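Sample intake sheet
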Amino acid sequence: MTAVRRAWWAASTPGAFYASLDEEVRLRSAIAVAASAALLGSVLAGLLLARASGSAPGPFLLTVPALALPYLLILGMLGSFVLMRPAELDLRAFEIVAWAWVPIGWLALAVAPIGLWAPGPSLAVAALLLPPWHLWMVWSGVVVHAGARPRAAVIGYGLTVFGLPLAMATFVTAILSSLP
């Protein structure tokens, strides 16, 4: 099965996809597909940001992936560590999280045609759809492979991956906006 077909299967029916995984954890393929999807999503986000701001796309095409990929890598690692303890997962937590980032690429492909005419709303729609889709994929993987407490694991994961960065951004924005 090709990587694109596996990525679509993972994103469209994650429960069946995670149930079909071998006993042996295959991090290399999961990380490669997730990195490709994240690269596609960040490149398209850079193009849409450039189009929305009326700027040249070159700097956005370099800056957005250079910032987004390490950021997603750190979030993925932190989230995987959060999943490991309460759900009693081993390296499977890293595999689940890697496959759960695949929707970035599919959302990028979905909003690309509309993004040419309405880049701001397209980015907003993608940003609103990504967290629930991502958390649904993590939930599906944890339910299939967890030894215990899937709800606690996914809530901790969601707070770490989405809640903590949002709280930090809100705090920094509040501090910066109060400066003279």
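Comment: The mean pLDDT is 93. The radius of gyration is 17 Å.
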